[in-house]
Specification:
The structure is a homodimer.
Chain A: H1 9-20, E1 28-37, E2 42-51, E3 54-59, E4 70-73, E5 78-81, E6 83-88, H2 90-93, H3 97-104, E7 109-114, H4 117-123, H5 125-135, E8 141-146, H6 168-171, E9 177-180, H7 189-195, H8 197-212, E10 216-217, H9 226-235, E11 241-242, H10 248-256, E12 260-264, H11 272-275, H12 277-280, E13 289-292, H13 298-304, H14 307-316, H15 321-326, H16 330-336, E14 352-355, E15 363-368, E16 371-375, E17 378-379, H17 390-393, H18 403-406, E18 415-423, E19 430-440, E20 443-444, E21 452-458, E22 467-473, E23 481-484, E24 493-497, H19 500-512, E25 516-521, E26 524-530, H20 543-559, H21 567-573, E27 582-585, E28 588-591, E29 596-598
Parallel strand pairs in A: 1-4, 1-5, 6-7, 7-8, 8-9, 9-10, 11-12, 12-13, 18-22
Antiparallel strand pairs in A: 1-2, 2-3, 5-14, 14-15, 15-16, 16-17, 18-19, 19-20, 21-22, 21-24, 23-24, 23-25, 25-26, 27-28, 28-29
Helix pairs in contact in A: 4-5, 7-8
């Protein structure tokens, strides 16, 4: 409802006057374009006339050109509605809202629907509110869908704040909040129903309230089919999306059941080429297909672009270019009830992208609310800086630790059987492994020969000082350690180490920095990066500098023997309790399917 | 917002339990169907499981069949979501809401979006409210879009009540009112802008309020293109429909500009076969194409069916059957934001139609809210009678008149030049004609040789006792007269006569009956029909009886020499001031394009 600026009667009356009165004119006319009409799935030659923030007319706008009208001759270039990213997390980029805006606008992204899931887990309503406040300062349209449950798995992990239905009245009414974000709590439907039915009770209250005030609810239904999928849809209030669909058959099932499938194509997880087969191979109606990024890193934004790159890749899969553009314009606008966005038509907000062709989706100019904001891959408007409140910047509340705190201990000697989390490259899923490890002075040791190292997750919000301990296989680390305050979704401090001393130092640096990433070897810090905002994002570095810094951190990890690519991201997802099979939280080793905590040692 | 029953958390929790708990079951399973999936534009074999009013699951529902579950084996029949008529007037059928429900439900129509434009003109909020109250008693889903301006042309005609923006807060909040209906006031954009800009001021206030509380606004943009169409769209708040689109090019223009084109296919005006060419010939995306009836007579409902017949005819034009069904299900559901209707999917209201094939669209069974309501063309549930308030039934407030009251008088003798409205068969448009007529005793006479007869429109709401007088050509009447209290859109009493004496009697019978239709010859009433509800509808006759009575009335008019088919309908539209060029109201002869009243005689 907050998404309809045309409610304003004065503005509407003025637009009508300009259209009907032969002595009044448009502010801006983009003429001689090839207009991508996502309403009719056509490309039609024509002009676009703009008055203030709104489109007056699409077609022949010659009658609206007066002496004061700025006229831009597009010389046959393509004109598209601005692109919408329907599901993204600023936190994944480690960038602020304004820095992400600066980097993504030149690619034609005019609207972001952000899920502040990470800052919500870390800081609760205060964190979410700060982020929505920052969004007031940017030229693009930033909307939010907020978490209704933190942590994802109550009783198995500690978040900085426990969001439940009690918080909905407050956070659903923050600036530009249009609904509830990914419904993590019931994504693992069978196990939650069996083990934590009270979560469902709370979710239906939250989603019911959201729907009652006209908000949307995003679902999150990885690998759900049949009755479980139906239950998830109903839990979400009857109309949900899913951005965790990875297989063609899963996509077909969800589209048939009325789910808006958010085909994910971000920096890490790329599911579009599989999902899109429902359209390209089965010829299904694509009106509920939507392209999203979920997680993007700064480097990719700079190198490849943003939604324009996702569209380009979708076209490569054999989708008609206009149909692909529908998936980032009119389709999400319909889902989110954005009546003012997503199409080029009278009365819509003048968010316009000029492209030189539809093969490379090369964006030349971007207009938001009738004003040009980008030219040739550069944002050309000033974006003011927002100063986050001190509470958001002081998110790490625990004393330093020592190596004893991180150790898995036993009274046994010789070798013991340990449970080991097996990392699977490029997946959130893990394997449940077992290995025999040496005991030294009561401490179970890593074994780099077997590629098994120490792992810990430390509560960092001053709530209980929990430390979860386990072993992990798959990083390749031969020496040293690294730690970070990014650990999905609760974002406690997570660390791995070939030895406990370096690991303790890495953790302590993260504590000292009040959030960040640190790589340590031989009692020395090799590289580090501060993440002052909730321990997740930086307001000190630009996107380019973040990219540089991450390269440096990754190089240091490689020097320690690290073999897996994107080790920091893999580490951060080892705390995610919503995907099977074994994970680590501040409670310890988590058996996801059985919704329980396991000891790190067998017996 | 009032359209989302799944907000109810108790219901949702119960549905989730049935789906997840292996010891709980569906109430009803329709098994072995060919499910018309309007989400994906497919037909997929499967079952539908229902609990209470809602669909639990679509697909294989074997796991939801328990001992108490009623199982219906569809033996491969087609299963469709219930059909939606997105724009209709009960008044056109002369039937009450409940009688229309009884006749239309067996054809698969489960949802009606009614525009109480006629009763609103006649009785204002009180009339609209009574109709919405009746809608509470019927098993189908009846929603309303209400007029925001009566009469259509203030200053040129008298309605029973002047609805303006001052009334919106009240009537937009009546039961099941989802928005503002056809935006008559700005359909004739150029002339209204020039002559009555204050109408636009008021419309933007009304539509702005409607949008601000989440309601929709139907447009009405006959023959509008370019800037005028854009102004109409913006006047309606940015997202409008149009049910007055008659030409392919007009349909293309409107779809490109984001208008939801309501392709009309009712008893009288049939525009679908022309409009649909935008889809069949141009291949345009049909997501904003919607099929509506606008005006249906009882006879056609019985003979041909309702939305199933409209779909059948659309398929005949070469449209894929599932795509045609989308135009009466998911497409209107998207437009009206009916999240609970229009698709067969988990959590949706169980409005289900069983068809034996998609060529004849023969409906065998209909379910509404999970309950069977029709079988083999008969409604099988009892629909209680609603008693309209006495104020609605006493709508004619004027004394009887005499022939002098109806006469066009002059001081001239011999012949005078008179303005004559030329009826065009099957159109709302008229011609502006002129003829020389004899004067007898100061009264200008009809001339049946030239097919020119008397015509009058008498204000009937006790507001000013206006009588408009003029001449008309095209009915073929040689003797007698007829009158009716149906005269679009103000519904004063309209009458034509070969002589004034019979005409006065016909008018007086309508006054005596408190609304209705009367045919008179030689000072005797040949036939008549009471229309007690607002002078527009009957609660005394069934649909079948109305059909019989209308046949009798039409036969009597034919006996008087009447040549035009449907003379009562043609007469009633001669008062419609929103379509060119000459019309009659209680103010007199109306020059529509110049928004002015003309004298019946030249000079």
């Amino acid at each position: 409802m907050q998404t309809e600026p045309l409610k304003d009667t004065v503005t509407r009356r003025k637009l009508i006057d300009v259209l009907m009165n032969k002595a009044m004119y448009a502010d801006l006319v983009l003429k001689n374009g090839k207009i991508i009409n996502v309403l009719t799935r056509e490309i039609v030659a024509g002009d676009i006339a703009v008055k203030g923030e709104f489109i007056l007319k699409v077609g022949n706008a010659a009658d609206l050109i007066g002496q004061e009208t700025k006229v831009v001759d597009l010389q046959g270039k393509f004109v598209s509605p601005g692109f919408i990213d329907s599901h993204m997390h600023f936190e994944s980029s480690m960038l602020t809202v304004s820095e992400f805006a600066r980097l993504s606008i030149p690619s034609g992204t005019t609207t972001l629907v952000a899920d502040p899931h990470e800052i919500g887990n870390a800081l609760g309503p205060a964190g979410i509110k700060a982020m929505t406040e920052e969004a007031k300062c940017v030229p693009n349209n930033v909307y939010f869908v907020v978490p209704c449950l933190t942590p994802d798995s109550p009783g198995l992990e500690t978040a900085g704040y426990d969001i439940t239905s009690k918080d909905m009245e407050e956070i659903l009414n923050y600036y530009n909040v249009i609904g509830i974000g990914e419904l993590q709590g019931f994504s693992n439907a069978k196990h939650v129903y069996k083990n934590s039915p009270e979560i469902i009770d709370d979710l239906v209250v939250s989603t019911g309230y959201a729907k009652s005030i006209g908000k949307i609810v995003d679902g999150n239904a990885p690998e759900l089919f049949g009755s479980e999928l139906a239950a998830h849809i109903i839990c979400g209030g009857g109309v949900v999306s899913c951005h965790e669909t990875t297989k063609k058959e899963e996509c077909i099932e969800k589209l048939r059941q009325g789910v808006y499938v958010f085909m994910r194509e971000g920096s890490t997880q790329r599911n579009m080429s599989e999902c899109i087969k429902a359209v390209t191979e089965e010829g299904m109606d694509s009106r509920r297909c939507i392209l999203v990024t979920d997680d993007m890193v700064a480097e990719d934004l700079e190198k490849y672009g943003h939604m324009n790159d996702v569209v380009r890749r979708t076209i490569t899969q054999g989708v008609d270019p206009v149909e692909a553009i529908q998936m980032v314009t009119i389709n999400p606008a319909a889902y989110f009830k954005f009546e003012h966005l997503g199409v080029l038509a009278p009365g819509k907000q003048a968010d316009i992208v000029i492209l030189d062709n539809l093969q490379n989706m090369n964006v030349q100019q971007v207009y938001i609310k009738g004003k040009q904001v980008a030219e040739n891959k550069k944002t050309i408007v000033h974006i003011p800086e927002y100063e986050y409140p001190i509470t958001v910047k002081m998110s790490v509340k625990r004393e330093k630790i020592n190596l004893q705190d991180l150790a898995v201990k036993t009274r046994k000697t010789g070798k013991v059987a340990a449970r080991v989390i097996g990392v699977i490259p490029d997946q959130n899923l893990t394997e449940a492994l077992q290995a025999n490890l040496f005991v030294d002075n009561g401490i179970v040791m890593a074994d780099t020969e077997q590629d098994i190292i120490h792992m810990a997750c430390l509560e960092r919000y001053g709530r209980n000082k929990n430390i979860g301990r386990a072993f992990v296989k798959g990083f390749g680390l031969k020496k040293g350690a690294f730690a970070e305050s990014i650990a999905h979704d609760t974002h406690n401090i997570i660390a791995v180490g070939a030895n406990l001393e370096d690991m303790a130092l890495a953790v302590n640096r993260v504590i000292e920095m009040n959030g960040g990433i640190s790589v340590v070897n031989n009692k020395k810090v090799l590289a580090e990066m501060r993440l002052p905002i909730a321990g997740l994002m930086t307001d000190e570095l630009s996107g380019e500098e973040v990219t540089q810094k991450l390269m440096e951190l990754h190089e240091c990890i490689a020097q320690l023997g690290g073999t897996i690519h994107a080790p920091l991201m893999h580490l951060s997802f080892l705390a995610l309790t919503t995907s099977p099979v074994w994970k680590i939280t501040d409670y310890g080793l988590i058996d996801v399917d059985n919704y329980t905590v396991l000891p790190p040692l067998v017996d």
